[in-house]
DNA sequence: ATGAAAGCGCTAACAA
DNA sequence: TTGTTAGCGCTTTCAT
C-alpha cells in the first residue's frame, strides 16, 4: 500500500493536474477548464485567480486527456515517402507553419516509397485519432484506402492531381508537367531526346511525368531515343552516373531528368567532361530547387509549389473545408541549360 | 435528444471500441487488452477469438486513451530550428527509422532558430506528455531549461557537445570542427584566409565553429583577413553573394564557409568568374553533403554524422538510457577544393 | 457565472 | 488464465 503510494508519487513527480489548480484557485474544475480554453463564461476575477494558480503551480495542461475527453484531436498525421527528397521537408515546412499558428500538432512517419509500409504506418497513425492524415499522391493499397475511408478522419492527398481523391487533394498535375517539358524541348528544336530517371515503380509521380513526356514526343513523331533508369532514390550521383551510361549508348541532343537532383548530376557530368551546354547537350529537370538557379548556367526546369502545397493542405484542414481538389499549378523555368 | 443522439452516432460513426471487441469475442476487456499488447497471459484459443473479432469489426486501438491510462507515452517530440537546412531532415530520418521499429511516434515543430519560439513550442510539446523532447544544441532560454527540467521527461540535445547538457547529448564538437578546418588550411599553406557565413546569432553551432576557427588562426599568427556575414539562413545563393562581396574587399587565398550550401555557392561563383580552384582560391565547407562529392572538384569539407545522430538519440530514448554525452565525431574530407 | 458528475477508451491492480 | 473495478486528466452537459 505505502509502496504503491510511493510509486505513484514518484511517477507523477512534477505532474500538476487541473484538479490541483482548481483547488488552489478555490474554484471548480470546469471553471479552470473554461478559463484555460477561453470558452464559455467566467468573471474577470475568476480568470485572474485561475491564471495566478496556473502560474504558481507551473501547470501544463495534458492534451492527451483533453483530446480523449473532447470530440476531435488537433493532431495532423503526415505519412510521407521520404525525408531525403527535399520535396517532403518543403511540404512539411509549409504545413507546420500553418498548423503551429492554429495550435495543431504535426506527427509524421516515413514509408520509403513502400505501399505496404504506408499501410502499416497509416494504421499506426489512425490509432492517434488525428484530425487528418496527409499522404503523397493517389497510389495506395486497397487496404490503405479502405482503412482511411472507414476512419472518418479527413484525408489529404498531396502533390498530385492525376487520379481520384479519397477526400481532399492539393497539388498539380504531374502529367501536365511531363507534357509541357516535352513540348518545351520540341519548341527549342531538340529531336534526339533521352531520359534519366530513378525508380519509377516507387515514385509514381515521376512515372506519370515520364509517361506523358513520352506520349508527347511520340505524338510529335520523335519518340525518346534512349532512357536510363537507376535503382534506388534520386540523387545527384545517380544523375551523373545515369547520364554517363546513357551517352555511352546513344547520341542525343537533350536529356530529360526525373528531377533536379538528377539533372544537377547530369550538369556536373557535362562540366567535368567538357560537354558544352546546351549546344552539345541540353538538360531539363523538375522541381525548381534553389540550387538550380545558383549554378553558372541556371537549370531549365519546372518549379513546383511544394511549400504552398503544405500550407494550403493545412489551411483546408484547419478550416474543415469540404472535399475538393486544389490545383496549385507549376511554372516552367526556361533557364540556360535547354 | 434524438438530435443529440444522431450527432453522437455521426461523430462516432466508425469508432469501434475495445469494449465492443470484448463483447463480440465473448471475453473481458482486459483480456482483449492483453492479447493486443501481447502482454500478460492468455490462451491460444482466446487469442484467436479476440483477433477474429478485431478483424471482423475493423478495430483500431485508441492510443490516446491507452497513453492516458498507462504510465508513459510513446511520443517523441522534436523541436527543430528549420526544415530547409538539410541537417534537420537528416536527423529526423535517422530517428524516425528507429522510432518506427519500436512503435514510438515522432512529433515535431519548427522554431526558425528563434529561442522564444523554441520555448513556446517546447511548452506546447510538453502538453502531449512525450517520452522525450529532442532539441538542437544547448542554447535555450532560461524558461525552456526550467520547464524541461521540471517536466520529468527525457531531454536530448542534438548536434553539439560544447556546453552543459540537461540530460542526454548526442553529436560532436563544433569547436573541434572549426579548429580542425583551420588547421587543415594552415597545413595546406594558405595564409590569407577569409570567412563567409550566415546569421551566427541564431545558428549558435555555426558561431562556435567560426570562433574556434578564428582562435586557431590567431594562434598561428595569421588571423582571418576578412569575413562576410549574410543575414538570413544559409543558402547557395547567399554563399555566392557572400564570396562576391568578400573578394571585392580583400585578396585571399582561401575561404571558410559556414556550411556546404554556402560553400557550393562560392564554388559556383568561382566557376562563373573563371577563378581557378584551388590554385587561385581554396574553398572549405562543413557538413559533407552528397552533392559536394558530385561537383567536378569534390568539395573539401567536414562530414558530420547527421543521420547517426538521430538514430543514436532515438536508441537511447527507446532503451531509457541514463544521462550521458555521446560523441559521434566527424570526418575531414580533403576533397579537391582546398 | 459556476460546480457536480458523468463519461472519453483504455490500462493495471486485484480477485477469482 | 480470466474478469471486475478503479482510475488516467480532462471536457461537457446539466443544474444551480
Automatic annotation (TrEMBL), chains A, B:
<protein>
    <submittedName>
        <fullName>LacI family gluconate utilization system Gnt-I transcriptional repressor</fullName>
    </submittedName>
</protein>
<dbReference type="Pfam" id="PF13377">
    <property type="entry name" value="Peripla_BP_3"/>
</dbReference>
<dbReference type="InterPro" id="IPR046335">
    <property type="entry name" value="LacI/GalR-like_sensor"/>
</dbReference>
<dbReference type="Pfam" id="PF00356">
    <property type="entry name" value="LacI"/>
</dbReference>
<dbReference type="InterPro" id="IPR028082">
    <property type="entry name" value="Peripla_BP_I"/>
</dbReference>
<keyword id="KW-0804">Transcription</keyword>
<keyword id="KW-0805">Transcription regulation</keyword>
<dbReference type="GO" id="GO:0003700">
    <property type="term" value="F:DNA-binding transcription factor activity"/>
</dbReference>
<dbReference type="InterPro" id="IPR000843">
    <property type="entry name" value="HTH_LacI"/>
</dbReference>
<dbReference type="InterPro" id="IPR010982">
    <property type="entry name" value="Lambda_DNA-bd_dom_sf"/>
</dbReference>
<dbReference type="GO" id="GO:0000976">
    <property type="term" value="F:transcription cis-regulatory region binding"/>
</dbReference>
<keyword id="KW-0238">DNA-binding</keyword>
<feature type="domain" description="HTH lacI-type">
    <location>
        <begin position="16"/>
        <end position="70"/>
    </location>
</feature>
Amino acid at each position: 500500500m505505502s509502496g504503491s503510494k510511493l510509486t505513484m508519487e514518484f511517477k507523477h513527480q512534477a505532474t500538476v493536474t487541473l484538479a490541483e489548480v482548481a483547488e488552489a484557485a478555490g474554484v471548480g474544475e470546469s471553471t479552470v477548464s473554461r478559463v484555460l480554453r477561453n470558452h464559455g463564461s467566467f468573471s474577470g476575477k475568476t480568470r485572474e485567480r485561475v491564471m495566478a494558480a496556473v502560474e504558481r503551480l507551473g501547470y501544463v495542461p495534458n492534451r492527451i486527456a483533453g483530446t480523449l475527453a473532447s470530440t476531435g484531436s488537433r493532431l495532423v498525421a503526415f505519412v510521407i515517402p521520404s525525408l531525403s527528397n527535399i520535396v517532403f521537408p518543403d511540404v512539411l515546412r509549409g504545413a507546420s507553419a500553418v498548423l503551429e499558428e492554429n495550435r495543431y500538432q504535426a506527427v509524421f512517419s516515413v514509408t520509403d516509397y513502400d505501399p505496404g509500409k504506408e499501410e502499416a504506418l497509416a494504421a499506426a497513425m489512425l490509432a492517434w485519432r488525428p484530425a487528418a492524415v496527409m499522404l503523397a499522391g493517389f497510389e495506395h493499397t486497397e487496404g490503405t484506402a479502405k482503412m482511411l475511408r472507414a476512419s472518418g478522419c479527413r484525408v489529404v492527398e498531396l502533390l498530385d492531381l492525376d487520379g481520384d481523391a479519397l477526400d481532399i487533394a492539393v497539388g498539380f498535375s504531374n502529367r501536365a508537367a511531363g507534357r509541357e517539358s516535352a513540348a518545351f524541348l520540341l519548341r527549342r528544336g531538340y529531336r534526339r531526346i533521352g531520359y534519366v530517371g530513378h525508380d519509377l515503380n516507387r515514385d509514381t509521380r515521376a512515372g506519370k511525368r515520364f509517361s506523358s513526356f513520352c506520349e508527347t514526343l511520340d505524338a510529335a513523331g520523335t519518340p525518346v531515343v534512349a532512357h536510363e533508369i537507376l535503382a534506388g532514390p534520386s540523387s545527384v550521383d545517380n544523375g551523373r552516373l545515369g547520364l554517363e551510361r546513357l551517352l555511352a549508348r546513344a547520341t542525343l541532343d537533350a536529356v530529360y531528368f526525373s528531377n533536379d537532383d538528377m539533372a544537377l548530376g547530369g550538369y556536373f557530368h557535362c562540366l567535368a567532361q567538357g560537354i558544352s551546354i546546351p549546344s552539345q547537350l541540353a538538360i531539363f529537370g523538375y522541381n525548381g530547387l534553389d540550387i538550380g538557379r545558383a549554378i553558372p548556367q541556371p537549370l531549365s526546369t519546372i518549379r513546383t509549389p511544394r511549400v504552398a502545397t503544405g500550407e494550403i493542405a493545412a489551411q483546408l484542414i484547419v478550416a474543415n473545408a469540404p472535399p475538393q481538389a486544389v490545383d496549385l499549378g507549376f511554372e516552367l523555368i526556361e533557364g540556360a541549360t535547354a
